[in-house]
Design a protein that fits this description.
Layout (H helix, E strand, L loop, with lengths): L21 E4 L18 H19 L4 E5 L2 H4 L3 H9 L5 E5 H13 L1 E4 L1 H7 L6 H16 L4 H11 L11 H7 L4 E4 L15 H20 L5 E6 L4 H15 L7 E7 L19 H11 L4 E6 L2 H19 L27 E4 L26 H15 L4 E5 L9 H9 L5 E5 H13 L1 E4 L4 H4 L6 H16 L4 H11 L11 H8 L3 E4 L15 H20 L5 E5 L4 H15 L8 E6 L20 H8 L7 E6 L2 H17 L1
Parallel strand pairs: 2-3, 2-6, 3-5, 6-7, 7-8, 10-11, 10-14, 11-13, 14-15, 15-16
Antiparallel strand pairs: 1-4, 9-12
């Protein structure tokens, strides 16, 4: 198996964050009980549901049960830090969590009093994210904390507490005030998506280990919901709902009742909870809906979706909870957590008992189907548009000129059954680098080894078996441990194992990892700590997960440094794919590589309409990462970006058909 070149980060040029122009300042942060609370228009049915939620929060805390808060970075960027802090101090919240970007903005506000750089301008010259103090301080804090087996959130707090003179705005830092109040603050990161991962000081093994500790802490907090509790999610579309689901699965696995639980999602994404969408609709894949409603209902829980801007919803929630507390005379007792979970008690089930949605015997190589005319039922109308034809020509030109064609896949791509088509694109040389999510890599390994993947989860959560399958976990963890000890990255480790142990992978003809290995091209894996089913297993080593995926990020960055004149295509990855790409592009440009003439394309069933029109903070698609990070920002120096709407089983075969027909002609 070929080892792939990694881009060294040692030559990266950093600048002082004090020289940066910022979009958010502590002077503009909202002040609870002093600012005028913005109006939040609600439909009649939502007024009643919000009242029920407020009442439930008060009754839950009065009964000594948990209320967990999960958030994305825009809660901090929109100036809501003090509201979160006051909800912690007043005893409303018993656990606060965020993603990596949330902790970065919180950290920068503590020492700088400002945060949120102008990305559009900085990405062009490679200065985006390359801030000396942010990168050095945070990476040092996490490295020191991981060495003491501390979690990510606690590591940051210990660092600020050790150097208070560096952090004049210490009192307005969410994770500091959580720790001071005895409330856990956990941080759940995706390797390669945060600006501190771009720095020479980044230690991916420590990042994985610290965030892994925080995942275990979150699981213990969710376990306290065994007799009821409330989970509040503000603006986290992927990691918040997925980590909640994995924690819930572990609790059910160890026999905890986990009912009645209520989960409420607050965001501006226009998803309705009125009817169940089909798998052909984007709403079906919206994680808060699937995890907080459809899946939670399997065990008797209740989910709500509320629409609105954070600067309206958060103050309204805070105000109403305090009002209801005063009206009822409720007292919130000091919250004390009892650990209820044990790694040693986790139960794994044999893969033979699992029902799967995708089976190898249903797959067929596209060349075996007459003349390349595959699956006419899934004909994609956009295949005949000028934009798609131009994109196809860009891929064909890149191949002819030996340029890079980097393809990123989300977790639902393999499950859609298009692996045979992707294998052909790899073999024909139309893909030179494949990037997978952790879920995608796990599905690929399952398909190659066992001939089926994509677990049917109708009763799995109730049973406690969701994701807890013995043989797939043992196989992946063994392969990763063996490869990492040899100095390999995540994808390299899996490819190495498949090459050395062919007998374990009887269905490897359908494996994307195997196809990449045969072709000698990189297949990198970019994981989020705590969101993958395989990370629920007791043998998970989060330090290895982070370290191996970090090596893959360096391989990925090397490919991006050669992307001038090439193509980047993203299929169905709404956060990790766009964010890893943007960070790698910043690294490449910072190191002096001319990466400007790029053709980019995002393929998904999300409807953007005119994706070149201007949108603002109040528009949901402003926060849709592919729009900014794939279509516009990377192409501002001379490239071109597209968004194509369609199902993977339509778009990927259409791309293959166009390329092979063009070659024949």
């Amino acid at each position: 198996m070929k080892r792939h070149e990694r881009l060294a980060f040692q030559g990266i040029k950093t600048n002082s964050v004090y020289s940066r122009t910022n979009l958010v300042t502590i002077r503009n942060m909202a002040i609870p009980m002093a600012d005028v609370v913005e109006d939040w228009p609600l439909k009649d049915r939502d007024v009643d549901r919000f009242d029920r939620l407020v009442d439930l929060i008060v009754r839950t805390r009065a009964a000594g049960k948990p209320v967990i808060w999960s958030m994305g970075a825009h809660v901090i960027k929109n100036g809501m830090s003090r509201y979160v802090i006051e909800m912690v101090r007043s005893g409303i919240l018993t656990h606060v969590s965020g993603n990596g970007a949330t902790s970065i903005h919180d950290f920068e506000l503590a020492f700088l009093g400002e945060t949120s750089e102008d990305v559009a301008r900085a990405i062009e010259d490679g200065s985006f994210g390359m801030w000396e103090e942010t990168g050095n301080y945070m990476n040092e804090a996490i490295r020191q904390g991981a060495a003491l087996n501390l979690g990510y959130g606690e590591s940051l707090y210990r660092y600020l507490d050790r150097y208070p003179e560096r952090f004049p705005h210490y009192d307005d830092c969410v994770f500091v005030q959580c720790q001071r109040s005895g409330v856990p603050y956990t941080c759940h990161i995706s390797i390669g998506t945060d600006i501190i991962h771009q720095h020479p000081s980044a230690d991916f093994q420590s990042l994985g280990a610290a965030s892994g500790q925080d995942f275990e802490t979150m699981c213990q907090s969710v376990a306290e919901m065994a007799e009821g509790g409330v989970f509040l999610n503000f603006g986290s579309a992927i990691s918040g709902p997925e980590i909640f689901l994995k924690a819930l699965s572990l609790c059910r696995n160890q026999g905890l009742h986990m009912a009645p639980i209520t989960a409420a999602n607050f965001d501006i994404v226009p998803v309705s909870d009125a009817a169940s969408p089909s798998e052909q609709e984007a709403e079906f894949y919206y994680r808060p809906r699937r995890n907080f409603m459809d899946r939670l209902e399997q065990i008797g829980g209740t989910g709500y979706l509320f629409h609105g801007l954070h600067q309206a919803t958060i103050p309204q929630l805070y105000k109403r909870v305090l009002e209801r507390k005063r009206e009822t005379g409720a007292v919130f007792p000091e919250y004390k957590r009892t650990e209820r979970l044990s790694k040693q008690s986790r139960v794994l089930y044999p893969i033979s008992e699992r029902k799967s949605r995708l089976h190898a015997d249903s797959l067929q190589a596209p060349r075996k189907i007459g003349g390349g005319e595959i699956d006419q039922e899934n004909h994609w109308e956009a295949a005949d548009t000028p934009g798609f034809k131009a994109f196809v020509e860009a891929v064909r030109t890149a191949k002819t000129q030996n340029k890079e064609v980097l393809v990123s896949l989300g977790g639902n791509v393999i499950g859609s059954g298009v692996s045979p088509v992707l294998v052909e694109l790899i073999r024909d040389g139309y893909i030179t680098h494949l990037a997978l999510s952790g879920a995608g890599a796990f599905q690929d390994i399952e398909l190659a080894a066992f001939g089926h993947t994509e677990e049917e989860d109708n009763q799995a959560l109730t049973r406690g078996s969701f994701g807890m399958w013995q043989e797939p976990g043992a196989l992946l963890h063994g392969a990763l441990s063996e490869g990492y000890a040899l100095g390999l990255g995540y994808g390299e480790s899996l490819m190495h194992h498949m090459t050395r142990h062919e007998q374990l992978y009887p269905y490897r003809e359908w494996s994307l990892l195997q196809a990449c290995s045969d072709k000698g091209i990189p297949c990198t894996v970019h994981v989020t700590i705590g969101t993958d089913a395989v990370q629920q297993h007791p043998e998970t080593d989060f330090a290895v997960q982070g370290g191996a995926s970090g090596r893959d990020f360096q391989i990925y960055a090397r490919t991006v440094s050669r992307l001038d004149g090439g193509v980047f295509a993203n299929f169905g990855s709404t956060v990790t794919g766009p964010e890893v790409f943007l960070k790698a592009l910043s690294i490449a440009r910072n190191l002096g590589y001319d990466v400007s003439r790029i053709t980019t394309a995002n393929f998904d069933i999300v409807k953007l309409g005119d994706y070149n029109s201007k949108v603002g903070y109040e528009d949901w698609d402003y926060y849709y990462r592919p729009r900014k990070n794939i279509i516009h920002r990377p192409t501002s120096l001379g490239g071109v970006g597209y968004h194509f709407e369609g199902l993977h089983q339509q778009t990927i075969p259409a791309l293959w058909q166009a390329l092979i027909h063009g070659k024949r002609n």
